[in-house]
């Protein structure tokens, strides 16, 4: 299967990439079997999704195969202003992170493969007229990585793997209201990212039938938008138009969003043939995300004859910068599977993701918090070649509050004071075919 | 394989939807009155307390006076006032004294003052047609019971206690905003301290003293011989007056309340919107002016000296309309008012608060604020340092729920079109700062308001 056909196949699923399902706007939904086990996988070689969790383990995956999985994430978010008033609920959206892998090679020796997955993303739409409307009304952030991978086993105990991660598709759509003296206007920033590459590499060590160890590292990719579009709605058209609209001339923007590196270690324990237990720890290097900067350009003529001085303005300024100051975020995961019969495998798992966003820095686009995760899954294998994997993941975010005083102290008044609470429900289904 | 996906995927999505119906809930922030009791709240003060905005007192702005916002927020503690009465105008006269509007003049937005010539901008005024002894238009009498918002535009500490002027200036006959609240019998004799003493609140706010410096400052440091309240108030009489007001309201320290001090008036848009440097630059660039490069802006100082203006001098908002106009003397335009020291008129003193006058105003504000702080302590009430608060706002603005608000004239959202008085949003900001201080002093947790829900200056659509 060529890269092109894989992309075409994935295109059918690409409604929107994901809602953030790990710290920050990371999405740790690499493979349906792994999801059922709390998202572990670095120390395991379950299936072709090893390409995502630990490319080093791919050579140890038993069969050649093709697999595809999709998740249906439903985020339920609530916000209450520090000033009281009605609770504002996120509008209900369904987002579908997906994964797709194909690998072949010589069993126990080497393997080539390619994976397509959605490692970062977020889609949120806030209630109409909510208190934070001038910070954000809606965001849709998508990323699709394509990762050709090669894994080689030096011995039955030790294998390595390297994948080239390619940001094949990325898009950002940010919308917010603008506080004009004549009433609220609206601005939409929309753009797609440039092609970028990174690496995903790992080592896998299996000293005995009952124990395996893995370590993996996925490098940072900067998602760069060049020449994204800026559009406005609700600017005045009457008496105040000349005075107000001259501050809104930009037609394009540039911005860069880091998709941070992730380092993980994992252990697999197989006490019996039927039972597999995985434990993972991973560290996402979110501290790379310091500020979100926009540079505006272009001139729509709102300020009269275009001059360098009146070009590229949004709210009278050619740039905008917003503090993020994310912190590196740890995650701990544990999960197990039990092979009840030759046809049926059942799974359970749990995880805790620490918040990437510091206190007083929470923004509406990523209402991040420490999150408790519980998962379950099962596999039905009608024959040795075919596996149907179902998974379910539930995430409960800790309640997160920040006050106007916090925002003033941190210089983060471009967001809102109040309390956020989010739950995410993610059912998923996948199909594996091995040969 | 395919049929299984086809049937199980929607089933799973349904499962998710069913679970997704579980919406997380957040408890509303708790509100409590602490050791204070807001069941009867009275506000004492001047125009800032009355809800005066855009150069006038009118119902729409009065509805969002900071005392009205406070009363509303006090109510959330469960120990708020059952009602809070403001002396509003009759619906047919809802625009009260009239107020300045932003309109298109010669193709650009400009503040327009209501006058007979522009049919009072179509406003529904409450003028009776009579003129008071002060020359101000009489306003229709307020007929309800004594209100809870006792803010009287224009009143100073000096004019609150008739003994301070030996009863020679009966304030109830001079100030239309006070006159409309009094009965015919009360007008010649009842001073403001007596008037506010009729109330028996459980909690009060007192924001007095602004006009003891502002009246002088906004007139460019020119006091009128005919008006005993037009100079900077001396500290002796201010002290006597302020102590009388605060001990009257606190019933000698037994009623809870909060006193707010005097913000430094030199930071308001009235004094910052027309910077000297900008005026001089535009004069020097005026192609119609002979020898424009040699011209500058000449002012008359408080001592009568004529000199070139410097950045330490503050031009009033009203100076804008005067600078460069035909002088009316022997040398009309192009040598307009302020352009020259010798050939024509320098800018009259009342349009500029010169460096020495600025220093005098700032020094007097500091002295009066010391009296306010000491008197608040003596009467065991909280003190809101509005001077420090406003200085911060004037310097860096205040962003709230991602909306930037500044002290910039008109477009900054906080100050109305007279350049002195806040907009409803400015008043909401004042209310929040008072709430913060009340919460600190009385151990209360009164919620603040979302100031973005209150308007800034009204721009025509």
TrEMBL record, chain A:
Which top-rank group of organisms is this from?
Bacteria
Q: How does it sit in the membrane?
A: Multi-pass membrane protein
Q: Does the keyword Signal apply?
A: yes
Query: Which InterPro entries does UniProt cross-reference here?
Result: OMPP1/FadL/TodX (IPR005017)
Compartments it resides in: Cell outer membrane
Per the record, the major location class is membrane
Arranged from A to Z, the UniProt key words for this protein are: Cell outer membrane, Membrane, Signal, Transmembrane, Transmembrane beta strand
Q: Which Pfam family is one of those matched by this entry? A: Toluene_X
> Quick one: signal sequence residues?
1-20
GO cellular component: a single term: cell outer membrane
Alphabetically, the GO molecular function entries are: long-chain fatty acid transporting porin activity
Similarity comment text for this entry: Belongs to the OmpP1/FadL family.
**Protein name as annotated:** Long-chain fatty acid transporter permease
Q: Which organism is it from?
A: Hymenobacter coccineus
UniProtKB/TrEMBL annotation, chain B:
PROSITE patterns for this protein = PROKAR_LIPOPROTEIN (PS51257)
Which keywords label this protein? Signal
Tell me the organism: Hymenobacter coccineus
Q: What is this protein called?
A: G-D-S-L family lipolytic protein
Q: Does the keyword Signal apply?
A: yes
User: Is the Signal keyword given for this protein?
Assistant: yes
Query: Which InterPro entries does the annotation name?
Result: GDSL, SGNH_hydro_sf
What is the residue range of the signal peptide feature?
Answer: 1-20
* Domain of life of the native organism: Bacteria
| Gene Ontology MF annotations | hydrolase activity, acting on ester bonds
């Amino acid at each position: 299967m060529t890269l092109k056909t894989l992309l075409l196949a994935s295109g059918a699923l690409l409604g929107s990439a994901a809602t953030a399902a790990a710290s920050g706007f990371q999405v740790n939904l690499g493979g349906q079997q792994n999801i059922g086990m709390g998202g572990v996988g670095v120390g395991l070689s379950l299936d072709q999704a090893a390409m995502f969790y630990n490319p080093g383990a791919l050579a140890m995956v038993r069969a050649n195969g093709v697999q595809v999985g999709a998740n249906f994430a439903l985020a339920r978010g609530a916000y209450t202003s520090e000033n009281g008033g009605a609770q504002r609920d996120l509008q209900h959206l369904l987002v579908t992170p997906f994964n797709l892998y194909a690998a072949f090679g010589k069993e126990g020796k080497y393997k080539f493969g390619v994976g397509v997955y959605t490692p970062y993303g977020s889609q949120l739409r806030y209630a109409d007229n909510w208190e934070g409307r001038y910070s954000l009304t809606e965001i849709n952030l998508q990323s699709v990585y394509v990762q050709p991978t090669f894994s080689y086993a030096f011995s039955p105990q030790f294998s390595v793997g390297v994948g080239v991660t390619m940001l094949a598709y990325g898009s950002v759509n940010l919308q917010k209201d603008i506080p004009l003296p004549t009433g609220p206007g609206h601005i939409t920033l929309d753009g797609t990212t440039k092609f970028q590459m990174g690496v995903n590499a790992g080592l896998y060590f299996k000293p005995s039938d009952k124990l395996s160890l893995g370590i993996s590292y996925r490098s940072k990719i900067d998602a760069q938008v060049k020449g994204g579009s800026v559009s406005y709605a609700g600017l005045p058209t009457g008496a105040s138009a000349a005075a107000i609209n001259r501050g809104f001339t930009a037609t394009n923007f540039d911005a860069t969003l880091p998709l941070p590196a992730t380092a993980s270690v994992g252990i697999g324990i197989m006490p019996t043939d039927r039972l597999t237990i995985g434990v993972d720890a991973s560290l996402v290097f979110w501290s790379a995300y310091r500020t979100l900067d926009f540079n505006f350009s272009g001139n729509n003529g709102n300020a009269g004859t275009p001059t360098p001085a009146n070009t590229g303005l949004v709210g009278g300024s050619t740039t905008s910068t917003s503090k993020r100051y994310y912190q590196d975020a740890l995650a701990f995961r544990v999960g197990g599977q039990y092979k009840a019969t030759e046809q049926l495998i059942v799974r359970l798992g749990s995880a805790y993701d620490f918040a990437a966003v510091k206190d007083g820095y929470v923004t509406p686009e990523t209402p991040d918090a420490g999150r408790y995760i519980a998962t379950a899954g099962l596999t039905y294998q009608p024959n040795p070649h075919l596996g149907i994997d179902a998974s379910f993941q539930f995430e409960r975010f800790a309640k997160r509050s920040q006050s106007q005083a916090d925002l003033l102290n941190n210089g983060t008044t471009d967001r809102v004071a109040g309390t956020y609470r989010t739950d995410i429900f993610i059912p998923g289904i996948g199909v594996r075919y091995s040969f | 394989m395919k049929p299984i996906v086809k049937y199980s995927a929607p089933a799973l999505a349904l499962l998710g939807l069913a679970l997704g119906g579980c919406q997380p809930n957040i408890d509303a922030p708790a509100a409590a009155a602490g050791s204070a009791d807001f069941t009867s709240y009275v506000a004492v003060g001047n125009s800032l307390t009355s809800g005066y905005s855009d150069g006038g007192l009118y119902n729409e702005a009065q509805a969002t006076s900071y005392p009205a916002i406070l009363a509303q927020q006090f109510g959330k503690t469960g120990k708020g006032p059952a009602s809070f009465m403001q002396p509003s105008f009759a619906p047919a006269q809802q625009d009260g004294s009239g107020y300045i509007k932003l309109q298109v003049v010669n193709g650009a937005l400009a503040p327009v003052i209501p006058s007979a010539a522009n049919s009072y901008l179509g406003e529904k005024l409450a003028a009776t047609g009579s003129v008071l002894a002060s020359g101000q238009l009489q306003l229709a009498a307020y007929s309800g019971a004594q209100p809870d918002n006792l803010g009287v535009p224009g009143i100073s500490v000096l004019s609150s206690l008739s003994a301070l002027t030996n009863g020679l200036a009966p304030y109830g006959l001079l100030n239309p905003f006070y006159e409309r609240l009094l009965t015919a019998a009360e007008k010649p004799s009842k001073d403001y301290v007596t008037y506010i003493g009729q109330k028996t609140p459980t909690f009060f706010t007192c924001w007095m003293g602004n006009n003891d410096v502002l009246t002088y400052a906004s007139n460019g440091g020119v006091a009128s011989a005919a008006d005993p309240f037009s100079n900077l108030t001396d500290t002796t009489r201010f002290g006597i007056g302020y102590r009388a007001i605060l001990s009257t309201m606190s019933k000698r320290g037994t009623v809870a309340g909060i006193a707010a001090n005097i913000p430094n008036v030199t930071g308001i848009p009235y004094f910052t919107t027309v910077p000297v440097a900008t005026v001089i630059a535009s004069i020097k660039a005026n192609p119609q002016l002979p020898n424009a490069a040699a011209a500058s802006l000449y002012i008359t100082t408080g001592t009568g000296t004529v000199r070139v203006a410097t950045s330490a001098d503050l031009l009033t908002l009203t100076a804008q309309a005067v600078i460069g106009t035909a002088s009316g003397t022997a040398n009309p335009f192009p040598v307009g008012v302020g352009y020259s020291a010798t050939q024509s008129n320098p800018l009259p003193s009342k349009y500029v608060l010169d460096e020495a006058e600025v220093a005098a105003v700032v020094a007097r504000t500091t002295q009066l604020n010391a009296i306010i702080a000491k008197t608040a302590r003596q009467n065991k009430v909280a003190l809101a340092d509005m001077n420090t608060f406003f200085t911060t706002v004037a310097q860096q603005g205040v962003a709230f729920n991602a909306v930037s608000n500044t002290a910039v004239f008109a477009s900054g959202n906080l100050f109305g079109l007279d350049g002195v008085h806040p907009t409803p949003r400015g008043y909401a900001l004042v209310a929040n700062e008072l709430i913060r201080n009340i919460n600190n002093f009385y151990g209360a947790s009164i919620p603040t308001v979302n100031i973005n829900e209150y308007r800034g200056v009204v721009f025509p659509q």
